[in-house]
Model the fold of this input.
Amino acid sequence: MAYTVSPLAFAYDALEPYIDARTVEIHHDKHHVTYATRLSDAVAKHPELATKSVEQLLSDLSAVPEDIRTAVRNHGGGHANHELYWLTIGPKGGGEPGGKIGDAIKAKWGGFEAFKEVMSAASVNQFGSGWGWLVVRNGELEVYSSLNQDSPLSQGDKPVLTCDVWEHAYYLHYQNLRPKYVEAWWSVVNWSKVDELYQAAIA
Ligand SMILES: [Fe+2]
Done:
């Protein structure tokens, strides 16, 4: 299967001033596209995998042939993680979540601000390149970070929100100031989409 990157649902400059247009363009059109291309190249070596979605591959890495397992973990993770990242941000984002996800966050952390601190800390403190995650595990919300392009799908979790903390996500505008980028990222989170993903994950 040729894995393709979904087009952005917004213009490159639509996330300004929180995430700058040049970063969005390079991040989506170059970094993300490269992950999808390299995943496609790896999977092409095994025609029996031609019908597998990237989610199916990541959900059972042990079933992926050993010669392409690392490539699927890195480039497949890179593709799937970025798909979720773009899906859950947008120009009319930010604020506090309503819906079932808002209720679940309040039930788990006592309030949105407490959750925000936990998710920000996971993202900011991830050593080196990686991701901050809000996932559903056994019907419960959990927050953690992952290294490189490791996907929560590979440990059986269902991701509903993610913050990309690779330097390519922020360095042009924020340089080394990852905490400032993470704080700005909250202003573009598309909570109605996160709620949709959460409801699907607990169904
Ligand atoms: Fe990225």
Notes: Residues 99-202 form a domain with the minor pseudopilin epsh fold fold (CATH 3.55.40.20). The mean pLDDT is 97. Residues 27, 31, 82, 164, 166, 168-169 surround fe (ii) ion (CB under 6 Å).
